[in-house]
Amino acid sequence: MEFDFADEQPKLLMLMYGLIAFVVVVGGLLLLLDVVPAWFARRREAQLVAASASGAPLPRRYRPREGIFAIFFLLPTLLLLTIGLVVPAIRTLLLSFMNGSSTDWVGLRNYGWMFSDDSMLRVLINTLVWVVLVPLVATAFGLIYAVLVDKARFEAVAKSLIFLPMAISFVGASIIWKFVYAYRGEGDQIGLLNQIVVSLGGEPKQWLLESPLNTLLLVVIMVWIQAGFAMVVLSAAIKAIPGDIVEAARLDGVSPWQMFWQITMPSIRPALIVVAVTLTIATLKVFDIVRTATNGNYDTSVIASEMYNQAFRYGQNGQGSALAVFLFILVIPVVIYQIRNLRQQREG
Predict the structure, then answer these.
(1) Which residues partner with 105 through β-bridges?
(2) In a 3-state reduction of DSSP, which class is residue 105?
């Protein structure tokens, strides 16, 4: 196959423009963060050397110049945050008050649709189910794992196996579990779950098509992934409990159950809060699992997946933006709670 330069010229021009933009951006960052401060430093050093050689008083340090240095360091970050976060957030907020084609203002109509449409109410209920079950169940399993494997003989191996799903992407994990839930008519099954059901004398089912069971089965995927994260954090918190407290409790004759509820749980409460908050935020944003497993069909859609569908599949920019704003609003209280909790820990 011969290379036709004329046909590939637009792509080559785009590549050249991209390289030029990369060089300009990187060069500008180097100029701001390295060359300019280094030039001021060399100039300051030369002034000090000249003053020392001539016996003149040392030049006073110009304080406002430090502010200029700070601007040089902060400007790239502020610029990227403005372009990547602030501007899109403001634009999304404005689009949420406009129609699907973003041509006319419709006020709060998109938000009214969100709470009045039957299909959207199902989306909100599904999201609530995710937010309640995933942090609760994943944290519970993580705590159970952490307690059981603590100081066990093969603790490192057990923790590695439990944490292993965290190394798999949400898409990869969803594909794995789709094989677990797979259905193949009557007879031998390729899906593990249906094969177990058939072995027990039951009838195979199309698990991902039955609502609301399919939503719970998708929740299982998220719990399987995140339980390892919860286990690692909580295990570290358990190991951080002072040994003298544990030894004193044992000398007092407390039972293992009392040890867990009266010593372990109060001691690891900050870690439990961190895990629960982190999992709550991750669950509110869940998209990959639903998109890969069911594409949001069969009453399994959540806010993030419906936001994508409305904005990019159905061309309803206003409704998709309203869902994005609503999702942002849901995350804010969780973040504020975590900030207040961390502040109380530092003050305590």
Answers:
(1) 98
(2) strand
H/E run at residue 16 = helix 5-30
Q: How far apart are CA 285 and CA 281, in angstroms?
A: 7
The values of phi and psi at residue 9, to 5°, are -60, -45
Residue 317 CA from chain centroid, whole number = 24
Mind giving me the DSSP string for 170-188? Answer: HHHHHHHHHHHT---SSSS
298: left (phi over 0), alpha (psi -120 to 50) or beta: left
Side chain identity at 129, as an amino acid letter?
A: V
Token pair recorded at residue 130: 């995710």
Q: What angle (nearest 5°) sits at the alpha carbon of residue 89, between those of residues 88 and 91?
A: 60
> Residue 98 in 3-state DSSP?
strand
**Percent composition of the chain: helix, strand, coil (DSSP 3-state, to 5):** 80, 0, 20
Question: Does the pLDDT value for residue 132 go beyond 90?
Answer: yes
Q: In the prediction, which pLDDT does 231 show?
A: 92
What is the Cα–Cα distance from 224 to 137, expressed in whole angstroms? Answer: 10
pTM (two decimals): 0.77
CA quadruple 200, 206, 212, 218: dihedral positive or negative?
positive
Q: Among positive and negative, which fits the CA dihedral 251, 252, 258, 259?
A: negative
Q: Residue 101 above 60 pLDDT?
A: yes
DSSP 101: T
Between CA 285 and CA 214 the distance in angstroms is: 19
Q: What is the pLDDT of residues 252-296, one digit of tens each?
A: 788 888 888 888 888 888 899 989 999 999 999 899 999 999 988
The dihedral region occupied by 107, where left means phi > 0, alpha psi between -120 and 50, and beta the remainder, is left
User: In angstroms, rounded to a whole number, what is the distance separating the alpha carbons of residues 220 and 240?
Assistant: 30
